[in-house]
Design a protein that fits this description.
About 6% of the residues have low confidence. With 342 residues, this protein is mostly helical. The longest helix is centred in the first third of the chain and has 25 residues. The chain has twelve helices and no strands. It is globular and about 65 Å long. Helix 2 packs antiparallel against helix 3, helix 3 runs antiparallel to helix 4 and helix 5 packs parallel to helix 8.
Amino acid sequence: MNEILRPDDTRDALRKIGGLLVGLAAAMIFIRKGGIFPSANRDRWAAFPLFLVVAAPAVYLYSGLLAGPERGELRVWQSVHSVFALLLVPIALREFVVVLGGSPGASLNTFWIFAFTAGLAFYTATRFAVRVQLLLGSIAVIVSWTALWDKILSGGVTAHWGIYRGLLGIVAIGLLAGALYVWRTNPGGAKVAASATRPDGDLGLWKASELLTGAGIAAVIATGLGIASYTKLFAPLGATNVAPIQTSNFWDTLLLLVSLGLVAIGSQIGTRGPVYVGAIGLLLFLVIAGFDLNSTPPHPFRFGAWPWVLLVLGLIGIALSFRRDASLGDQPRRFIENLRGR
C-alpha cells in the first residue's frame, strides 16, 4: 500500500482527474434524479439512494487525506479531493434530513448543515494544511449564520435588512479575528510548514488571507445589499413587485472603503482572493452610486456629487505620493512584525 501511495506525478494526476470525474458523476446523477426542478419530480429517486449517491463519493474523496503522505507532505490530489468532497457534504446532509423525514429547506436544518460543513472545512484546513478550506469554511459560516437568524428574526432576514447588515458585520469581524490568529500562530507547526501545497513566502499570512477573503465577502454583502434597489430603475415600466432594499450614502461609503481596503491588502500580500472580492465590491459601488439608487426615484443621468468626491480624493492621493515626507519608511514593516509578536 505504501508503494501504491508513494508520491508520483503520473499516479497523482490520474488520482486527481479520476476523483474529479467521480465527483462530477455524483453531482450529475443528483441533478437528474434529485428532483431539483419541479418538472423532474416524477423521476426523482428515493431519498436513501440519493443520499448514497452523494455521501459515498464524499467519504471516498475525503479518505484520501488519511493516506499517510511521505515526508509529511500533502499531495495536490489529496487537496483537490478534499475540496470536491466538501462541496458534496452539504448536499449529502440535506438528503440525510430527507431520509429522516425532515424538511431540508427549514432554516434550522440549513443552519446545522452548513455549521457542520464549516467545522469540517476548518478542521481540514488546520489539520491537513488545505488552506482553501478556510475560505470555503468562511462561506459556510455566512450561510449558516444567515439561516440561524432567518429563523430567529420575525419574518426572516428579508424583513430586517438593517439588522442583517449588522449581523454580517459581526461575521466579518469574527473572521478577521480568526485571520489575525492564524497569521500570528500559524497552527499546525512543522507539519504545515512541510506541506507540498504551501505557497512561497509567509505561510501564516497566505493562510490568513483565505479568512480575510471570507470576511471581505461578508462585509461586501452587508454594504452592497443596496444593489437590490436596481428595481427602482424599472418603476416606470411597472416592475415594482419586488420591494427594494434601502441604501444610503453611509453604506455606499462603507462599501467603497471596504472594497478599496481589500484590493490594497490583497495586492500588498500577493493573494488574489481579497482583490477579487474588493473588485466585485467596487463594481457594486459603481452601480449603486453611479445609478443613484439612493434616491427615489433614482436620477442616473444627473452628475451629482460622487464623481467630484472621487476625483478630488484620487488627485489628493496621487499628489501626496510625490511628497518626500509622505513615506513612512520601515514603520509599516515594524508594525507588521509587532503584530506577529516578533
